[in-house]
Amino acid sequence: MSKKLCGTNYPTSICFIVVNEFCERFSYYGMKAVLTLYFLSYLKWDKDLSTAIYHAFSGLCYFTPILGAVIADSWLGKFKTIIYLSIVYVIGHVVKSVGAIPTVGNTDVHIGLSMFGLILIALGTGGIKPCVAAFGGDQFEEEHIKERQKFFSIFYMSINAGSVLSTLITPILRGDVKCFGDDCYALAFGVPAALMVVALAVFIFGSGMYKKTPPQGNVLGEVCKCIGFAIKNRWNSSKDGLKRKHWLDWAEDKYPKRLIQEIKMVLRVLVLYIPLPMFWALFDQQGSRWTLQATRMNLAFGESFTIKPDQMQLLNALLILVFVPIFDLIIYPLVGLCRIKITPLRKMATGMIFAALAFGAATLVEINVVKTVVEPAPADQSLLQVFNLADGDVSVKVAGGNLFQDPIKKLQDPSAYELLPLAAPNKELRFDVMFKETSYPCSHEFEERKAYSLIVHEKAPGIECKLVEDYITKNEDGNPNVRFFNTLPEAMNITVGETEFYVPQKYSMSAYSSVNRGLYAAVRCSHQSKQCENLYLGLLDFGASYSIVLVEEEGKIVAKKMEDVKANNVHIAWQIPQYALLTAGEVMFSITGLEFSYSQAPNSMKSVLQAGWLLTVAFGNVIVLIVAEGAGLEQWKEFLLFGGLLLGVCVIFSFMAHFYTYVDPEQLSKMYAGDSGKEEEDDDDKKKKHDDIPLNEKETSTKM
């Protein structure tokens, strides 16, 4: 018998399991928090590919639990499976970290190491996933049902405690620590690798205190053989007109009734799992689509404090720590006082509704977020804006059209881009610039789907036009883009924060560069041998793209700021309602489902059913993978689609749950062990017998 914590029925061994889970989840969620931005910023993939690979990895992490369950139940046992696959897990983290070092090979090497590392991580985290929770449950004596229920809540809270810290810390390591002249992804991946080493060491340290259940044999193989035999026997006997109560009963000629009954129990639950992937399809978008949404929002809280877009994910884990005790101690008891039966499946259905509402909130946020986004021009068209640097108003006519109807004032910030028809993939267009009642012609070649700025300035004897290509895509990390246009006769060097700009002379434009968001009141610059210590740029805000024109006024160099792409004007706090709704849904759906999977499984198949539960997460990520790559919808429409689909699935799940009868696997096990020849109780007798079992115990037989 394992040692107990002082004065309780809790085994001491669960302390090591909880700490191990905390460190492992820190490792996993810390790495995953920065993964989408790693794909975008470091590997330079587009948003749809980054989302697809992110969810392909997430899906793989939840497909591999079935492998871990088979290894644990039929070969090594849970303890050794956790040890060996944790070693694979550590190796994967190390490979992933090395792949994020810029000096290690070229882009193909980085991609290869990253993908290999992610595969090993998926094998490790997925392989141990069904074992750790079940291994923790194994530490309790059968009669300590309430303690085991509490363990699952503590276990889940340790997951989210690790997630809170990791999603807070790793984005800081990524963005605030610079290595190799850029964001330090190698460190952001290296720290989670170190925590996985700690997780493995803690688990090994407690090995002498664990209650280790030996492997039960190849349970999954035996189940598959039994099902196959039942199908085959039924098919062969169909000509004889024989009937049996259940199609699995056709296996009684070869397999014991206890195994058949246990398979029936598992299959009833697995059928109930069919609609569940839709919940996870929504839930796992926190790290992909919701993070991408955050990059286009205002991340500032006051003048001095800002968060990073990938840090917003910590809100889910933080709210879990708050919501779990609130639901357990306040909400569920209050609902019980209203004489509403609280069953696991009712909790899960309600959780689905909350997740759908979360995506409704995300849709409303997205509709407002995209108002600051400049949509690329469609085929056979370009985008165009005009900067007037001449000493007076100008009027611009394009090929005799009326694209710019109003006069353009000197150094006027363009309000928006105009669509420029080309009627071809590329075309040279003529412009007529009217300045001081004189028309000056100029012509430039345009390419479809691109954005341009036409810069009009004086040059003896009249007006000259200069065309520059613009960058209208907002940065993935939310920082602003800046470029400088120099009207002075000498080149300039300007340093904005840690970013240096070289601006050629005489009406030349520097390239866009990303700078940290902030108020720049005195920017250092050099002009020939002179220093400009007080170049005022003002606030360079989240998500904006700026063209800063350098002019000389009264002997001083002055910066005139133009906003090519509007700054993010929707505050990140507007994401809080969607995170709160989704987290409330998770508390009712995920924690309940974890316990439900354990309680409804026969002793010999607990890890298999746990793996089946985790497999629903894998298929949820497959759904996102398909939609991200195939649907091609605007983001707010995609959010709305997911929310609507989950509501429809919730109706189906509720209908299925209504006809599900909860089972008591321990009682079933005792029945077969004590009296194998006893006649089975019919379903009506079982239902009557189980009606008196309290609702708060996991082995209840109440219908939803």
Blueprint (SSEs and pairs):
Blueprint: H1 13-33, H2 35-42, H3 47-63, H4 65-99, H5 107-138, H6 145-175, E1 178-179, E2 182-183, H7 185-205, H8 219-237, H9 257-273, H10 277-283, H11 289-294, E3 300-301, E4 305-306, H12 314-337, H13 344-369, E5 381-388, E6 394-398, E7 418-421, E8 426-435, E9 438-447, E10 451-459, E11 462-469, E12 481-486, E13 492-496, E14 499-503, E15 508-509, E16 513-514, E17 518-520, E18 523-527, E19 530-535, E20 538-540, E21 545-553, E22 556-565, H14 576-599, H15 606-630, H16 635-658, H17 665-674, H18 683-690
Helix pairs in contact: 1-5, 1-6, 1-7, 2-3, 3-5, 3-15, 4-5, 4-7, 4-15, 5-15, 6-7, 6-12, 9-15, 10-15, 10-16, 12-14, 13-14, 13-16, 14-15
Keywords:
704 residues, elongated, 22 strands, disordered C terminus, 5-stranded mixed beta sheet, alpha+beta, Growth Hormone, Chain: A, Solute carrier family 15 member 2, transmembrane helix, 4-stranded mixed beta sheet
